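User: For my dataset I need records formatted as: sequence, then structure tokens, nothing else. Please produce one.
Assistant:
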Amino acid sequence: MSNHALMPRDPVPALNVALTTGERFVLGANPGEKFDLVVFYRGLHCPICAKYLIELERLAPDFAARGVQVLAVSSDDAERGRQMADKVNAKNLKFGYGLTLKSARQWGLYISAGRGKTSIGIEEPALFSEPGVFIVRPDGTLYYGAVQTMPFARPPFQDLLGAIDFAIAKNYPARGEYTGEV
């Protein structure tokens, strides 16, 4: 099975995951006023993910002030999802868990095989998805997407805030939509 890139302006795949709060997140059921920001992370085993998500937790109120609902999600189980939420000291950020690898593939995420314990001594799952960041319009279409094959070099959240400000102020359309011959 190969990865496929999501197309800007097209509907994104379904996303329905349990939250560490005991609720569920269903993308599109109660969208953010302007956007939903969906951040797929590798899991509890990833120290770079924790650092990245601490920054997202810090900036979550800034996203909310712009009408952007934020979710961090991984294929971890409930216990590991709660541990990551605790590690990040999540108060503003929703943490989803139990993302199926089939769903990860539908979102165009790369899948890696576990290689034992990481530098922080936590076992990697047998299979897990690599990171991805997506901005989704309230109508369920893709506005922005970035996927990584590695845990590093992810889009900085401060830059995304600036991009969202620009997009809202200028009514800037999603780009990368051309699928014709080149």
